[in-house]
Each structure stands twice: as C-alpha cells, then as structure tokens.
Amino acid sequence: MNRLFLALEPSSLVRRAIADWQPKPHERLDRQGMRWVRPEKYHVTLLFLGDLPTESVIESTEEIVQQHAAPYLTVEKITGFPDNKRPGVLALQISDSTGRLNPLQAALHTALVGGDNEYVPHLSLSRMKPASTKLGHKLRDYIHSGEHPEELSWTAEGVALYNSLPDGGYELVRRFEFKK
C-alpha cells in the first residue's frame, strides 16, 4: 500500500541552517514530548496522495510541473498546526515571493485529488506526542515568542514524489523539474 505525497525540498544550505537553528526550540520545549524531524526529512508538502496508482501520479505530475516555473521560497516565521491556539505540530511558515507556489499546488490538487483545497505552505519541525496540557501550553507559548531562524530563501529545484514507509522513512519515487 502506497502513502504517496508530493513535496518541495529545501536547498542544502537552507536545510543546514534550519538544522543549526533547531536546537533553540529543543531547549525551550520538552524533548520527551516532541518527535523532531531529522534534517534529511525536511520538506514543504504540496499534496498528500495516499494510495493512488503511482504511474498515473507520475504522468500527471510531470505534465503539470513542466508547465510551471520554480517558486522562490522564504522561511517566514514559526507557526503551529492545526492552528496556533492548539498546536500539535511545530512548523516554519513558508512564503513564495513569485506567486507561483499556490497555482502549482492548486493544479496538482485539481488533477490528482479534486475537491476542496486549503493549502498552507510549511516545513514541519516536530510533532507533539500525546502529552500533557503543560507541554501544549509550552508549545503554544513558544510559537507566540516570535523566535525563528534568520531569513532563509531558496529557489525550488523541482517537485519530489515520495512514498512514506512504515518505519517513518521516505522513499524517493521520482523528481520532476520545473520548466526553464
């Protein structure tokens, strides 16, 4: 059974900078109550696909990505999901100064999944394990502290199709390049 998703990968410099900054939230949050994302797994999710047929996903994704130019992404601030009042995920909010990210994501969503689409670009740093209210308050307070890494930006090189593995790892299925 596949657990496919499409994502944008940060550049190696951005990945390293986030990894170097990540100990700061570690210091402020209970390490026992958070599952931290390893730097090699950082990504900006475009779309969860689940168990769709891989070949049809590849065909549709390739066609769509080749029609879009690369977005220029910037780490904006620390944020939480599902929202900042009751966060379960600590993430970095991502913006796109080119205006290309949302049309790309919408085109992929329409072609592959259909239905309503509410997209909030972010890069997940950690997920809170089922824990105490105290940790939830600490996470919320940290999000509202305004702390975040220095400005980090990169041009996305392409879209990656991954399959989530049962052990929590990701298997790269294919990369798709943007139009030049």
Query: What's the number of structural domains?
Result: 1
* CATH homologous group name: Cyclic phosphodiesterase
Helix proportion: 25-40%
CATH architecture: Alpha-Beta Complex
CATH class: Alpha Beta
| Pattern of helices and strands | EHHEEHEEHEHEEE
Low-confidence stretches: none
Note the overall shape. Answer: globular
Secondary structure: number of strands:
9
**Global structural class:** alpha+beta
Strands in their spatial order, largest beta sheet? 2-6-5-4-7
Rg (C-alpha, Å): 16 Å
Number of helices: 5
Explain this structure to me?
- This protein has a single domain (4-177), classed as Cyclic phosphodiesterase (Cyclic Phosphodiesterase, Chain: A), CATH 3.90.1140.10.
- 29% of the residues lie in helices and 33% in strands.
- It contains five helices and nine strands.
- Strand 8 and strand 9 (170-177) form a beta hairpin.
- The N and C termini lie far apart (34 Å).
Please provide a brief summary of the model.
The chain is α+β, with helices and mostly antiparallel strands. The protein has helices spanning 12-21, 23-28, 54-65, 101-112, 133-144; strands spanning 4-8, 34-36, 44-50, 72-81, 89-96, 122-128, 152-155, 158-164, 170-177. It is built from five helices and nine strands, in the order βααββαββαβαβββ.
